[in-house]
Design goal:
Elements lengths: L41 E13 L5 E8 L6 H9 L2 E3 L1 E3 L2 E3 L1 E25 L15 H6 L20 E4 L6 E14 L5 E9 L4 H9 L7 E3 L2 E3 L1 E23 L7
Antiparallel strand pairs: 1-2, 1-6, 3-7, 4-5, 6-12, 8-9, 8-12, 10-11
Length: 260
């Protein structure tokens, strides 16, 4: 087959990027936050994914966090995992070394933050479009794991019985300290937040919590030509927060968690 000529008619339309930000508007009066932002206590569920090199005696040789919804507790989680003891993997009757793959199911009790600083900045046609914060669903993230583990035993996919945690001390059970998050939000003409695009988050476990909180706020909408209008705005939040974390379940996975 002869190679396709680049002068052949295109099958995909070629579009130019807009010169102005399509999210931006020019408003005489920008949207404003209410004097006091409301938050409530809540319970959130999340999962942490971890790779651990487990030798043929069940001893941890190394731990590599792969996906962590609470980076604020990463140090305590790492210290806890380093103390875990396993029943080693088996291939046939032989005990073997491998990289264990685990999903740690977490339940997080979030206390409503008592002191929150917030700013709301209108998005204009001149505002640069930022890169969204990427935190896809767990099942989508798992499907993206196509890489090979580093040297250290046999591949987890080839064992008959994966390593099973036997002693699992867990000290990453509470947090009290600063948090921060940033969103682009659309405030409709009634002053309700109807869409939110995350840009930053100190702990991804907070994303659904903050989305739910802002959906209950009553803002003053932007005004253009004397009438309320919908508008996009950048919302920045920071303050102090606390939560308690319960390790509910440990699942041993039969696939590598290393990405390509």
């Amino acid at each position: 087959m002869p190679p396709t000529r680049v002068t052949d008619p295109s099958v995909v339309a070629i579009l130019q990027a807009p010169a102005e930000n399509p999210f931006g508007i020019v408003a005489e009066v920008p949207a404003t936050l209410p004097p006091k932002l409301s938050f409530t206590d809540a319970v959130a569920n999340g999962a942490s994914f971890v790779s651990a090199r487990v030798d043929a005696s069940g001893r941890i040789m190394g731990v590599r966090p792969q996906r962590d919804p609470i980076p604020s507790l990463a140090g305590a989680a790492q210290r806890s995992l380093a103390r875990w003891v396993f029943d080693p993997a088996r291939r046939g009757s032989e005990k073997v070394e491998t990289w264990a793959a685990m999903r740690l199911d977490l339940e997080v009790e979030i206390d409503a933050p008592r002191s929150v600083q917030a700013t709301l900045t209108p998005i204009t046609p001149a505002t640069a479009i930022p890169r969204p914060f990427s935190w896809v669903p767990d099942e989508v993230w798992l499907e993206s794991r196509k890489g090979a583990p580093p040297d250290g035993g046999v591949p987890i996919e080839t064992v008959d019985n994966p390593p099973m945690p036997r002693k699992t001390p867990w000290d990453a059970d509470s947090y009290k300290g600063p948090f921060s998050a940033k969103f682009w939000i659309r405030v409709n003409s009634s002053g309700i937040v109807e869409k939110a695009i995350p840009l930053e988050a100190s702990d991804p476990i907070l994303l659904p919590y903050l989305r739910r909180a802002m959906s209950a706020w009553a803002l003053q909408p932007a005004r253009a030509n004397g009438a309320p209008v919908g508008s996009w705005n950048e919302l920045s939040l920071s303050g102090q927060i606390s939560y308690r974390v319960d390790l509910k379940q440990i699942a041993s996975l039969r696939r590598t968690l290393f990405g390509s």
